[in-house]
Specification:
The protein is globular. It starts with a helix and ends with a helix. With 350 residues, it is an alpha/beta fold. The chain has one domain: TIM Barrel, CATH 3.20.20. The longest helix is centred in the middle third of the chain and has 25 residues. It contains twelve helices and ten strands. Helices cover 43% and strands 11% of the residues.
Length: 350
């Protein structure tokens, strides 16, 4: 762990990170101070370098902005509006260029026909990345959402079809996974050129319901995850490993322990247990991002319940901790509830 932190420290110093004053947020909430005014970039990078919060607990909650705010300047402005309103410590860019659903892949051997998407496919997404780097990077780390090759394969044929094809003939599916990985790396490399600080790198495929044979994940999902994640981790100082539970729970997180990523974000529900952020830290030996359930108190109008839930999370959180949820918040969430959770984190003594 010590060597890891030393290496990260040298790498971050080599980038010449510049301090910047965080933007002033637009709300104040009764009975809650907005927290100390800090340099958000410095706070997050110090957390990554040392593995500990430096007197300030960062926070991040992410939402989908819906139709009308997925591309162009409308998307850029909505991202910035949200960032300023809720005072989170990341400018996190939603990904709205999912691979289209294909009718040409009906059986495992069809994966050799997987289209290869080049830079032009991602242009609308890259415009949003470029503008948010330009407008947001001085205020907080800018991280772009990055779906794993397995997830993009699922978008191409549905998750259910992909799973079945991998069970039937993973060697044939592998041909498509190789093509998707190269497309994914095109997007990631372009984002790096534009100046992102890192990615929220999302992975699926290891859920408890997915494959009874663990060799399928080990040989046909994980290698493609690592091909992407190792490259972005070498290039960027702020990557979040997001073990996505959107389609199902995990019985075991151990297959992900050797995945790269400076911060780990996952559900606290593993098998039949509800773990704590400290448990995840003990397993992964790096800062943990999460603690709250996306369908929990933050999704309701009950501020008292949210305060109690945040207090409980901090009782079992590690020194290196970012308050957030296990995935993007669902549905129409009141931004003031999110701001309340963020303010509670910022006022929490690290």
């Amino acid at each position: 762990m010590e060597n890891y932190l030393q290496n990260r420290r040298r790498f971050i110093q080599s980038l010449g990170l510049i301090s910047a004053t965080a933007l002033t947020s637009s709300w104040t909430l009764p009975g809650i101070n907005s927290g100390p005014k800090v340099d958000k970039r410095e706070a997050v990078f110090n957390l990554i370098q040392t593995g500990k919060n430096q007197g300030y607990t960062p926070s991040g909650f992410f939402v989908h902005f819906g139709e009308g705010f997925k591309t162009g300047d409308a998307a850029v402005q909505k991202h910035l509006e949200y960032f300023n309103a809720v005072d989170i410590d990341f400018v996190k860019i939603q990904y709205e260029s999912e691979f289209p659903l294909l009718t040409s892949i009906q059986k495992p051997e069809d994966w050799a026909k997987m289209p290869f998407y080049k830079k032009d496919f991602f242009e609308s997404q890259l415009y949003v990345v470029k503008e948010l780097v330009k407008k947001g990077k001085k205020s907080a780390p800018v991280i772009a959402t990055l779906y794993s090759p397995f997830m993009s394969a699922g978008h191409s044929v549905t998750s259910e079809v992909l799973t079945e094809h991998m069970k039937q003939d993973p060697e044939s599916v592998k041909k498509g996974m190789e093509i998707i990985t190269e497309s994914t790396l095109i997007f990631a490399r372009e984002c790096i050129k534009l100046g992102v600080d890192g990615f929220l790198s999302s992975t699926q495929g290891g859920e408890g319901f997915r494959f009874q044979d663990p060799e399928i994940f080990k040989n046909y999902v994980k290698p493609f995850d690592l091909a992407v994640m190792n490259e972005i981790n070498d290039a960027c100082p702020c990557n979040v490993l997001h073990i996505c539970d959107y389609v199902g729970d995990y019985n075991d997180l151990s297959p992900f322990v050797d995945y790269p990523g400076h911060i780990v974000n996952c559900s606290m529900k593993v098998g039949n247990e509800m773990l704590h952020p400290q448990d995840i830290y003990d397993q992964f030996k790096r800062p943990v991002f999460g603690g709250l359930e996306k369908r929990g108190a933050i999704s309701t109008a009950n501020s008292s319940n949210l305060k109690a839930e945040v207090t409980d999370v901090f009782k079992n959180s590690p020194e290196g901790f970012v308050l957030g949820a296990e995935c993007a918040l669902l549905g129409e969430i009141d931004w003031k509830q999110i701001r309340l959770a963020v303010d509670l984190a910022h006022n929490q003594k690290a």
